[in-house]
Amino acid sequence: MKLLSSRALRALERFNSAYPWDHNAHYHRWILRQLPRRSDRVLDVGSGSGDLARLLAGRADAVQAVDSDPVITSQARKLTPSRLPVTFTAADAMTGIPDGPYDAITCVATIHHLPFTQALTRFRRHLAPGGTLVIVGLSRAQTPVDHLLGAVAIPANAAMGWLKNKGRPAQRPVSMTAPTRPADMTFDDITREAEDVLPGVRLRRRLFWRYTLVWNQP
């Protein structure tokens, strides 16, 4: 579904480049509200520059942050005060997760880079009884609802960029420098596979081309 002309899209891309903001960080505070106020151990998968891991460190005794990119993992270490209980590891999310169990596992804009069902199964195995899994992911637009949310997000995205940068052009934050790729699973695909692995899982479409998934280990 084509919502804007090529000329309008190019103008919007120039505007977004001048006033960038991190769509994933927009959901960090929401993620914290899904988690207990205090935890022993927390795992952040796809930790990037460490913004979420540093927030999680304010309410956990230990945070394990894993990302497959050694360059951005090194940057995350440099950006993180030594007083915070965060350990950054450059490793594959499917094979390099430090042994759990974890009271909470978070994964933001990463699971579409992984084999979806296998990743959910691995997260479930690393989650402690009563623990919480929170995912913010990307899905491929397919339904009229998907396209409507995408249409609403276009002007909202520009407005948020302007407000977050206080109307002044800015450089892209470090958290937005990691390589990305488009999602290939639709929201319906994601829901079907997630419900098979995580009975009782809660999923919801969100603005800014995201969805959320929350599940509690029995």
What does this entry look like structurally?
Strands 3-2-1-4-5-7-6 form a seven-stranded mixed β-sheet. β6 (202-206) and β7 form a beta hairpin. It contains seven helices and seven strands, in the order ααβαβαββαβααββ. It has 218 residues and is α/β, with parallel strands linked by helices. The chain has one domain (1-218): 3-Layer(aba) Sandwich (Rossmann fold), CATH 3.40.50.
Offer a concise description of the structure.
By secondary structure, the protein is α/β, with parallel strands linked by helices. It has helices at 6-18, 28-34, 51-56, 70-79, 116-126, 144-164, 187-197, and strands spanning 39-45, 60-67, 86-90, 102-108, 127-137, 202-206, 210-216.
Beta content comes to 15-25%
The CATH class assignment is Alpha Beta
Tell me the helix content: 25-40%
Briefly note the CATH topology name.
Rossmann fold
CATH superfamily: Vaccinia Virus protein VP39
From the helix content, strand content and strand pairing, which structural class follows? alpha/beta
Number of domains: 1
Q: Strand-and-helix sequence, N→C? A: HHEHEHEEHEHHEE
Overall CATH architecture: 3-Layer(aba) Sandwich
State the shape: globular
Average pLDDT reading: 85
Number of strands: 7
List unreliable stretches of 5+ residues.
none
Largest sheet: 7 strands, mixed
Our measurement of the CA-to-CA distance between the termini, rounded to an integer number of angstroms, reads 41 Å
The number of helical elements comes to 7
> What's the alpha carbon Rg, rounded to whole Å?
18 Å
Strand order of the largest sheet: 3-2-1-4-5-7-6
